Amino acid sequence: MTLRHFGWFLGAGFGVQGWGDPTYGIGYDWKQPTIYQDAARLFERSGLDALIIEDGVAVPDTYRGTAEVNLAAARFVPKHDPIPLVPYLLGATERIGIVPTLSASFTEPYTAARLLATLQHFAHGRLGYNVVTSGSDLAAQNYGLEKQTEHDLRYDRADEWVEVVKALWRSWEPGAVLEDTERGVYADFTKVHRIDHEGRFFRVRGPLNALPPAEEPVMVQAGASGRGRTFAGRHADVILALASTPERMKAHRDDIRAVAAEQGRDPDALTVLFVVNPIPTANAEDTAAVRARRSELTQAAIDEQLQSISYLTNLDFARFDLDAPLPEVATNSNQGTLDNFVRSAPAGSTLREILAARAKADGLAVIGTPAEIADALGTLGEASGADGFLFTGQVHPAHVHRTLDPLVPALRDAGLLRRELGDGGLRANLADF
Ligand SMILES: Cc1cc2nc3c(=O)[nH]c(=O)nc-3n(C[C@H](O)[C@H](O)[C@H](O)COP(=O)(O)O)c2cc1C
């Protein structure tokens, strides 16, 4: 089989890990770096290219108009800022890429360029950044807006944001730093330039006052709507994507690659990773039991699905009758995510049927013995052309060990997972195959 790239998407962000697991709180405090450092070391030993850390900036209270479900289940809240965690993760590891999320909507490009430049110096080429446009109205209300800017306009703004960030990194020409102690010249002023950017959304003078990194951090992006894909295909090095069938994966990847080619980029320079949730089992009986348990539509399972889709779309799904066909819905937030949700069941399905279909098919779950999972991912990779897969979940030790301890040897035996990461940084590791 062909080698694929693998990564871990920490969907809970720098937030509560392992809530609900019987081992919650034993030996670890999620507010301290240790649990993330231990997980990052395990990911590195396992040969995963990167750890990507989700982020968001609101306490979700869209579902039923209250934060009750989210606070009780510790879903999306509380959440600390992932940026200060990054140096701890870099310090604990040597080769794996570390990728915090950064909002192009709520971070000034100068701040972002400076922050990422600083971190990349620590990282020696291991830094990435997941650029999001933050669709949540709740988040927008924390930054002085009444509601979030119109969907496509957010991406127009993000286009300009990327342009400014990169211009700032390039405001120091290569060779600008002389460190000439004899002449007493640290840097050559003729090689450090203002950018004088005056655009539709930003005015930035430059140059950057931080020293730009030798290698620009790897840009990661997950836009899924038409406009989102255009943004991702134009700028991103790594694309994160959700799709539940090989056909949809292939279509998504082909589409993004076509956008990149239209922009004069080499589509092979893009790494398209699809999110999967592998659940290793001991045998067929165990697989059947796990499937049955996960497809049970309990009230807690309904709440879990509805709080999430409500938050991600700014729509309170409690307003919809569970047993009536889901009316036509549209969002200014994560359009690709809503589209995926609605298309989980045939048109005209009730909300309950959609939830049941999602629970049963369990979209991203790959359940089976380690060898079966390796086989399934190999087949999925061949059929879709996926450059790799992103495992998802919290980094509570019970979860990461339950997943990776059995799976890593199986993936390696199948020739899908590399045995060792190179030491040239994230970009170099991604370019290995
Ligand atoms: C794997 C993955 C990770 C994502 N991580 C974040 C995140 O950390 N923060 C965030 O605000 N949005 C996140 N998103 C949302 C995307 O940035 C994007 O808004 C979403 O995929 C929908 O795309 P669209 O806005 O083009 O419809 C993520 C999406 C995916 C698929």
Write up what this structure looks like.
The chain has 433 residues and is α/β, with parallel strands linked by helices. The protein has a single domain, classed as TIM Barrel, CATH 3.20.20. It contains 15 helices and 15 strands. Strands 1-3-5-6-11-12-13-15 form an eight-stranded parallel barrel, surrounded by seven helices. A two-stranded antiparallel ribbon has the order 2-4. Helix 7 packs across helix 8, helix 9 packs antiparallel against helix 12 and helix 13 packs across helix 14. The radius of gyration is 22 Å and the shape is globular. The two termini are 13 Å apart. Flavin mononucleotide binds next to strand 6 and helix 11. The site of flavin mononucleotide has 21 residues, from strand 6 and helix 11.
